[in-house]
Write a structure and sequence with these properties.
Layout lengths: L15 H14 L6 H15 L6 H13 L14 E4 L6 H16 L7 E4 L11 E2 L9 E3 L5 E3 L4 H9 L16 E4 L5 E4 L8 E3 L14 E3 L3 E2 L4 E3 L2 E3 L4 E2 L4 H8 L9 H8 L10 H20 L6 H17 L8 H4 L25 E2 L5
Parallel strand pairs: 1-2
Antiparallel strand pairs: 2-13, 3-6, 4-5, 6-7, 8-9, 10-13, 11-12, 11-14
Helix pairs in contact: 1-2, 6-8, 7-8
């Protein structure tokens, strides 16, 4: 693996063994009008000539879906075989990548009926890296560093915000806690460009509570579509460095992590104060009580807005259904326990009481870590 400006481009030819393994799996599970031997011969010839090969649409679809099936940190894999594929492999120019990423948001949002979707852009080729999306997700809120060292907005996004400003992004005046950042897209030569995300492409849900009217006064909100955008997709030795994909939120992701974590929006002390809780000792369980009300508010708000959101109890049961299906199919079901188990009320969910197949770094197809 030879690095390139922008990070991680492949200069070496695709390994034929990786392609062969994938094609064997594809033909075993899906089948094809073209015989396995015939397809393998064609791929070998293509790799010999060009250093890589092009997946058929059926192969790309299968590979992207199986990569989701293999995603050890995802609890929502029951519907892996329904992932909607947007094939944009002909696109590598950053402006095109940004435009189609925005189209991805519009198409997957569907007015709140979130559809699990992936958009696949040009792959890495020997000596010709594909495009990359710098943003961790297509929608991220800015983190504005205050003079006192504190952060207005999302502390997780401070570095991305600084980079966006360096590329010409004008912070809103005045800045707010939920300012949507632009997309930063890097081309094959390592040059990064900035593209604003139109407001109409971002569905947001204002957070209120079913019992406490003051909750709305906190001014909280969150976006509807969690679209991961900086994880390369690798299928049969071919790497697609820009392949944004989304499912839908579990309420605890927003309420028990994004809005609650001390290094994110850190809302628990504020909510506890408004609830009149005793915060002088952890033994009063004030954090637990505030957390439950925050997650309740998130679920209530998404339900009121008609936006797809799962709860951690139902999603845990669905995951075990997926696990049993995989076992019946004779397949491993890797799972990272620390990610599968919900970040609240863990022992009340069935996933807490299981052991799982350990994830393997060499599993393919896969969505790879951002720095791969």
């Amino acid at each position: 693996m030879t690095g390139v400006p922008g990070g991680g481009g492949r200069d070496e030819p695709v390994e034929f063994a990786a392609a062969e393994d994938f094609l064997r799996q594809f033909h075993s599970e899906i089948g094809s009008p073209t015989s396995y031997d015939e397809r393998v011969r064609a791929v070998r010839a293509e790799i010999d000539e060009t250093g890589t090969y092009e997946h058929t649409l059926a192969e790309l679809t299968f590979g992207a879906r199986v990569a989701w099936r293999n995603a050890a940190r995802c609890i929502g894999r029951l519907y892996w075989n329904s992932l909607h594929i947007r094939d944009r492999r002909s696109l590598s120019v950053p402006s095109d990548v940004a435009a189609e990423s925005i189209a991805h948001l519009r198409e997957s949002t569907r007015g709140g009926r979130i559809r699990s979707t992936i958009t696949v852009f040009a792959p890495d080729r020997p000596g010709r890296p594909g495009p990359r999306i710098v943003n961790e997700q297509l929608i991220r809120y800015a983190g504005h560093r205050r003079p006192d060292g504190g952060v207005l907005g999302d502390p997780r996004s401070v570095d991305l915000t600084t980079r966006a400003v360096a590329l010409g992004w004008d912070r809103p005046s005045p800045p707010g806690p939920f300012d949507v950042l632009p997309l930063l897209v890097t081309d094959g030569n390592g040059a990064t460009s900035r593209y604003d995300v139109p407001r109409d492409a971002v569905l947001e849900v204002p957070i209120s509570h079913p019992e406490y009217p003051w909750f709305a006064e906190l001014g909280l909100r969150w976006h509807a579509v969690p679209a991961i955008s900086n994880m390369p997709l690798e299928i049969g030795g071919v790497r697609y460095p820009a392949a944004p994909f989304n499912g839908y939120y579990v309420g605890t992701e927003v309420g028990a992590r994004n809005l609650a974590d001390a290094d994110r929006y850190d809302m628990l002390p504020t909510i506890a104060a408004r609830l009149g809780l005793d915060t002088t000792s952890a033994r009063t369980m004030w954090k637990d009580r505030a957390l439950v009300e925050l997650v309740r508010a998130v679920h209530h708000s998404f339900d009121q807005a008609g936006v797809t959101m799962a709860d951690h109890h139902t999603e845990s049961e669905r995951f075990l259904t997926h696990l049993h299906r995989e076992e019946r199919a004779g397949r491993r079901c890797p799972a990272d326990w620390s990610w599968i188990v919900p970040p609240m009320s863990a022992s009340t969910t069935p996933v807490f009481h299981h052991y799982y197949d350990e994830p393997r770094a060499d599993t393919r197809p896969a969505y790879l870590p951002a720095d791969s």
